[in-house]
Write a structure and sequence with these properties.
alpha/beta; Rossmann fold; 5-stranded parallel sheet; 20 helices; 6-stranded mixed barrel; 17% strand
Length: 530
Amino acid sequence: MTNSIPEFETDTNCFLIIGSNTSEGHPLIATRILKAKQRGAKIIVMDPRRNQVASWADLYIAFKPGTDVAVFNGLIHVIIQEGLADEAFIRERTEGFDELKKLVADYPPEKVEEITDVPAESLRQAARMYAAGKPAAIIYAMGITQHTTGVDNVKSTANLAMLCGNLGIPGGGVNPLRGQNNVQGACDMGALPNVYPGYQVVTSAEVQKKFQEAWGSTGPATVGLTVTDMVNGLEEGKVRALYVMGENPMLSDPDLNHARHCLEQAEFLVVQDIFLTETARMAHVVLPGVTFAEKDGTFTATDRRVQRVRQAIPPIGDARQDWQIVCQVAHLMGGQGFEYASPQEIMVEVARLTPSYGGVSYERLEQLGWLQWPCPNADHPGTAYLHKGRFSRGVGLFTAIPYKPAAELPDTDYPFTLTTGRLMFHFHTGTMTRRSKKLASEVPEAYIEIHPEDAKRIGLNGGRRARVVSRRGQIELGVRVTERIKPGVVFIPFHFAEAAANALTNSAIDPVAKIPEYKVCSVRVEPAAL
């Protein structure tokens, strides 16, 4: 996030929430947004499904899944045409505006309506609300990123924010809400194929030299494989062994039948987790990790906030803290430099080698409670919001982005568009929440949401169950008939292994980020035999 969660409550005057079911996926953040609404802030929600946070919205706009770029280009078109852009910000702090202006001239609201199903007047209303609501915050989650155009979607959010001068100020910004509690921290620590900790690129000779001197050795100075590349690499013979930590690809990967086939090709599969997940059942070796209550260390929240995690109970049974397991495995493989005595010792090395964490220490965290990076030295207070005065590249870059359709569109054989997502009562692949009797009782089984018109036409009324079929697989599940979803679109939560939504989803990926298109695929829906 460019900004901080507390700013939403105190500073933000307008929220544009797109691709985020905030109140169910991030309820604590949603509480801040609701408090802002109570003091007068406006809320715009854009989503193919009328999710829970849409009930708070001053303006809710349903659009066709996979048409996000066209929506953003339409908003930008209106703001430019009506003279609502922050011309001083554009002139002083950005480049590339003329190219963007030329491109969005081809996206008037009426044309955008044809692409997205968003009424032209609703698009104009949203553009005016956002432009007039400074400081305005864009909030998004995986509804933006999990597309074959995910990178284009994210760049479009930056275009809109810069257009109205909503970067580098409290309460504004482009604010992605991360999907799990320490995703930000994992990325910060280099759990990506192209960077070392602190986003220091592996292809830099200077960076390679730095880590070579610190660690005694480094990996190759080439970009590694993404998650999707690794799974496909098993089938292709490029990957022979896989070490999976705290992830469950046998429920979270797209096109699960293909994912299962790939994992079955692994010569050696190791899973390190707290429960015997669907993936762990396929493993040659399972290493028992620990829960948050059994470990010591730090988590980094979605707004770059580094916080201490304190061990409440000793590890149960043979389970061990993740850092201990990794260090012991490294020793057994002949690795050097893994003689850490504690997580605090590891944090000392993190601060020494990672400029953005340079001023983060356990002593300061104990004293202050938390620190937000960038925090380059021990005297630095941390950074509440990014890009104040200048961008990291100097000036912000507008990107002219044409709309491109999703990889798979409805046809006569598969006439519905499926989009997937999360529920309030379950988390990710249900590894933890579906073991809770209380949470499981709230939503005990999978279901499909379908519009009443579609349900009536198909015959999905009363207590009927549905069979949902894509080009990759099929599942049977319960039916919820609701006007929350647009005609022609269906929604399935992905938490349920026995009716896994990802048995249906498309493995087509964004060409840059390699993120699968979980949010758009084509399916057929029919009554299941009772």
